Amino acid sequence: MRRGLGRTVVLVLPLATAATAAPIPHPQVPVQETPLPRDPRLLETIDGELPFAGIVDERSASIAQALGARDYERAETLLLQAAEAHPGSSEVLRTLGGVFFLRGRPLNAAIAFKKAEKVAPLDERSRFTLVMAYVALGRRDWARPELAKLAAAAPANPLYPYWTARLDQDDGQYAAAVEGLQRATQLDRRYTRAYDNLGLCYEALGRFDEAERSFEEALRLNRGEKAASPWPALNLGLLLTRLDRTEAAEARFRESLAADPRFPQARYQLGVALEKRGLVAEALRELEEAARLDPDYAEPRYALARLYRRSGDKERADRALARFLEIKAQQNRQKNQAAPEQR
Questions:
Q1: Is residue 295 part of a domain?
Q2: How far apart are CA 83 and CA 244, in angstroms?
Q3: Domain count of the chain?
Q4: 256-310, pLDDT tens digit by residue?
Q5: Considering only CA atoms, which of 168, 119, 141, 143 is closest in space to residue 42?
Q6: Burial level of 216, CB count in 10 A (0-12/13-18/19+)?
Q7: Which residues of 16-37 are buried (b: 16+ CB within 10 A; e: fewer)?
Q8: 84, 180, 284, 337 - which has most CB atoms within 10 Å?
């Protein structure tokens, strides 16, 4: 699978205990920041203005102002103060959970939401943000029952079968993921990401014709969006490469770059396609740009080492290979440091 939910190295606490016993860290205490899963539907639900209507104390107006300005650092400080002064306020805790999540602190977010749930049932938005916090922590087993509650309460919302399928996809349960993604597209015929991931699952199952049709539909929808994603064209290009349709794949990689010229994966794949056509100079330019755009992207370094060596530039080839090995060693260290639950 080319694009999954990802695994992150975090401090994992049993939240059933942490939610009732662990204090919410003060902003001066270092906390683990984690890259969060991103999806347009997720952003519509979470990464917007967080309303705050709770009458807590003199901080209320300042909290609402900070949230309205998306000044989440100040909002976090004020909400922590409010939570300390009013530990029984569910709204303060829910809003704090949303702010923690948006600041890349999923563990803190999960603890805040579970504390809030002890006071009052979570609203739909807060529960979904809790799901995404669990996903960011690599705890799909905790996310699943929360998603099931959301799906049962809002069966017409395509977001919940989509994310359930994403969890199945990341667990390698591709047949189950196909069912969930098909359900999401039935609920919303314009759900680009659902068609794109459906293509990935069909491809993983070896159903290449269905995969191509799904990628084509995702790409068709994507072309009509204001902020087009580079992923559908890239994923279709990779499938076409797998099917030895190199020229068609190259066109899709170029389309991916038209959507986002700073997309290193498309630069890398275009470089590989150009190398296959014997266009070494053009391939080198694309691979060097991919490496520049993402200093921790290992694959372009390996391809560069191969092309430099073929061109007789041993010094640059050795440097590129050394950097490739350095990145891979760092990735292995991070993998070995992962919490036991994520191995």
A1: no
A2: 59
A3: 1
A4: 999 999 999 999 999 999 999 999 999 999 999 999 999 999 999 999 999 999 9
A5: 143
A6: middle
A7: eebbeebebbeeeeebbebebb
A8: 180
